[in-house]
Amino acid sequence: MNRLSLSQAFIYLLRRDLTLAVRNRAEFANPLLFFVLVITLFPLAIGAIPELLARIAPGIIWVAALLAAMLSLDSIFRSDFDDGSLEQLLMSAHPMPLLVLAKVSAHWLVTGLPLLMVSPVLAEMLGMPSEAQGILILTILIGTPILSLIGSIGVALTVGLPKGGILMSLLVLPLYVPVLIFASSAIEAAVGGLDVSAQIYMLLAFLFLAISLAPVAAAAALKMSMS
Amino acid sequence: MSDNTLLRINNLACIRDDRVLFEHLNLSLAAGQMLLVEGHNGSGKTSLLRILTGLKLADEGEVLWRGISIERLTADYYEQVSYVGHHDGVKRELTCLENLRLVQAMGIPSDLDLDAVLDRVNLYRYGDTLMGSLSAGQKRRLALARLFATQSILWILDEPFTSLDKSSMGHFETIFEQHLRQGGIVVMTSHHDIAMQGTEIQRLNLSQ
What we know:
By secondary structure, chain A is mainly alpha-helical. Chain A is built from nine helices and no strands.
């Protein structure tokens, strides 16, 4: 028998990670729960002022999405590192960046996609104008994969350290800020009825940059963490 | 030096926390040969094995596979190597068969079908059992089943007999002999006495 083609290996690892996520549901529901809780708590704390809530809704949703994504990052490589599966993956006959991309894709499907699906409901709850909701969903669709990809570098660098959590946040957060700025600026512009294509193109540029560079960087970082 | 040398170690050194674990290490292994790495705890056995897998970088020297540095070969080297380390490298949440299928997907699958692979490590009826419900010894056997699931020549084994019972140990020793006869190479560390007949065992003691 021959070795699998690259795309087969990619799909195989993706399916394996999704199977693991299904069998570990509780762990992966955590970020989604966090996202929903944070956003529902805001109206309670600020008070029922519809104009104010609608005004700050994009910011709340994006900050919550960013923190939820960061909360879930550790699960990309942690369990594989702990049980030795990661060293087996590093010793696979396939290029490691491809396998990292498969793992990050699985991670996004499990943590980013649910955020995307609940965000319209939450936006409606905060009273966001309906013309801006489409743009919100679009920014989350483009933005959350960037968060997972950049985060994978941070986790890969710190997975070998005993208490890498804080260091990982410090490494990753500055890189998340541009995504946050452009995404909330796009929504802001949409609320004001302005053209948002500049911000969306910028986010798309970040996304393609992250897809092409992050897996390579994360694979190299994993190799360092291992030795 | 024979021409059929597959694995060669050139002037290898490993330093940990300002302590030299070993240096000026030279070795060559040809098809059908076995290297048994011995030494007391902390003498660098695991470090040496991890350097051979390429997971750890040597502080000095190089490891050559068929004359080419393994750092340059990467995937071309890994498709011929199986490594069983301290960790079993199997997922608790997956069944035995799912674990082995992943192993095959990540390397070059062997001609044995997976039921036969499980049979060789005496886990035949456990194919659909979740790893989490197996005993430590059974997990170890599944980790060792990786060796048959792919077509690897070089087997690097770090304490392969941990938590195995006596009869399993004997069983695996026979399997190692078979692998050596078919032109494979085994590099291993073990605290247990290895009683293998008719095979050429090179011993390397790192404590000296």
